[in-house]
Amino acid sequence: MKFLQLLVSSNIFVAVTILSPGSLPLGSLLSGLPFNFVQRFGVQADSRAIAQSCPLPLLDRLASHRIAPGETLADIAKRYKLRPETIMGLNVNARSTVLPIGETLLIPPFNGIRVNVPPGRLIRDVAKQYKVRADVLFELNGCQPAPSTLFIPGITWSPSYDTPAIVPSSVLKFTFPLRMAAPVLTKFGFRPNTRLESHSGVDLAAKLEAPVLAVAPGTIAFAGSQGPSGNLIVINHPKGFQTRYAHLGSVAVKLGQRVSEGETIGTVGQTGVPSVKEPHLHFEVRSNTKLGWVAEDPLPWLGMK
Fold first, then answer.
1. Cβ-based neighbours of 263, under 8 Å, separated by 6 or more
2. Each residue's pLDDT tens digit, 142-160
């Protein structure tokens, strides 16, 4: 038998009896007090007792899956008995029509979504919003008094749960990747009339063999053939940003080479598996985050709507 001693004020303590580690949800043990007790009163608890009574936060216990050639999102979801949307919600690289071979996906033990918690918001408020039990949510996320992120079980992910795209900074401005302005054939994001297909960049109409230009100074991180992307060039830029140029006809740069803004790096082509039949440049902007290189809508970066 263990005791968890909570300091309510300078001279008032509340002792909670814990029969054995993991025997009861800690949230249930604290059910005699307001659920947001820790946040409202600044509760201090014996960290060893909490550690023994609560598992690690679920987001720290995710499994990983490396994408094999020929695998589809439906195949992977079926293997782990999950909805495809659950995997898409935790993995930006799972939102494309064709999965990137060799990349890693994070896999939760059951369906749910990851959400950011604004500072000052109580766990019970989040639980009420998503209609889940507050004590379950508390323990599932490691009994953290003020978490910045939570895993919400049983909720089906959709794009509306994602945070807005990063707004381009004035520190880094991109020029157009073609010598002339071009109409947009396919925009960024989920495609109309589809459920799970997402476009990670924009398709800019262009003539075959038209020069493709670096939109900003940077270093070549990849230059070569990459499955459905065909001939692909990836450039890493300052401030944690990256641009990608796909379906190229030719590649004029090498790995590790530094390029300048407006420098020709290749030509427009139709290699790989383009999403539209018309000749075009597939262009992406990505930002470096804890989830990896997350795709952003390129149009604001190019001064387009």
1. 213, 214
2. 888 788 889 999 988 876 5
DSSP string, 43-89: -B--HHHHHHHSPPPGGGS-EEEEPPTT--HHHHHHHTT--HHHHHH
Domain boundaries, the chain: 2-59+112-153, 62-108, 184-301
Which structure tokens are listed for 139? 């323990």
Please state which CATH number belongs to domain 184-301. 2.70.70.10
Model pTM? Answer: 0.51
pLDDT attached to residue 100: 84
Q: Compute the average pLDDT of residues 285-292.
A: 73
Tell the CATH topology of 62-108: Membrane-bound Lytic Murein Transglycosylase D; Chain A (3.10.350)
pLDDT reported for residue 52: 53
- For residue 264 the two structure tokens come to 């020709």
Report which residue type is found at 126.
V
